[in-house]
Amino acid sequence: MNIEFATEADIDYISERDKHLARTLIPTKIMAGEIYILRDSNQAIGWMRFNYFWDNTPFMNLIWIDEPYRGQGLGKDVVLHWEEQMKERGFQVVMTSTQSNEEAQHFYRKLGYVDVGCLLQEKDPLEILLSKKL
Fold first, then answer.
1. Number of independent structural domains in the chain
2. What is the pLDDT of residues 43-83, one digit of tens each?
3. What sign has the CA pseudo-torsion 133, 109, 30, 1?
4. pLDDT at 131
5. Other Cβ atoms closer than 10 A to 4
6. Closest to 85 measured CA to CA, from 1, 2, 4
7. SS3 assignment for 7-55
8. For residue 74, what is the domain's CATH number?
9. Dihedral sign for Cα atoms in the order 105, 112, 2, 53
10. Can you spell out the DSSP letters for 72-115?
């Protein structure tokens, strides 16, 4: 498995699966180097995208692994890869979030993330904010 920056060739793959990001924003995020693609034998099998919380703290927005590849540690691999990249860029802290009814909160805590706050929006489960010192 390889982890690399997404390219314009990945737009359709991401757009078909990412229901939280408008297709028109994908090229901008690709050009900014804010989407990693996971590949197995040159075939896209997942991605991770991020942005910056408060414009200064790397914030992981979403990890997606195609169903046949789940449960193999690829999510952990891409998170650790991203963390290392952010550390190399001089960041000391990274963040992410997950809803309180999602299992992802346990995944992030196992990777060393700690709860730092929450957000409650009408009609949505509690959003847990998590942070990790690099």
1. 1
2. 999 999 999 999 999 999 999 999 999 999 999 999 999 99
3. positive
4. 98
5. 11
6. 4
7. CHHHHHHHHHHCCCCCHHHHHHHHHCCCEEEEEECCEEEEEEEEEEECC
8. 3.40.630.30
9. positive
10. SSHHHHHHHHHHHHHHHTT--EEEEEEETTSTHHHHHHHTT-EE
| Closest of 87, 68, 95, 51 to residue 1, by C-alpha | 68
What does the alpha-carbon distance between residue 50 and residue 45 come to, in Å, rounded to a whole number?
A: 18
> Which structural domain, as residue segments, surrounds residue 40?
2-133
pLDDT tens-place string over residues 88-111 = 999 999 999 999 999 999 999 999
